[in-house]
Amino acid sequence: METLERITIDPARRSGKPCIRDTRIAVYDVLDYLASGMSEEEILNDFPELDAEDIRASLAFAAARERRLFGAA
């Protein structure tokens, strides 16, 4: 599975917010956890349905969104 293919958007799930695969865990949830200081290991322990590639996909999704919004430098 390609990294960004792990992110799904379904209007029936979390009001259409980008989520990881078919879970209800939103990309911004993972980003918030990382920003608050949680380690990747802590996130994976708290959410066993995730794996390390899901965390990387969340970061890649956020980076791609930033590039689209503000253009590549």
Automatic annotation (TrEMBL):
Q: Which SUPFAM superfamilies match?
A: Homeodomain-like
Q: Which Gene3D superfamilies match?
A: Winged helix-like DNA-binding domain superfamily/Winged helix DNA-binding domain
* Protein name as it appears in the record: DUF433 domain-containing protein
Organism of origin: Mesorhizobium marinum
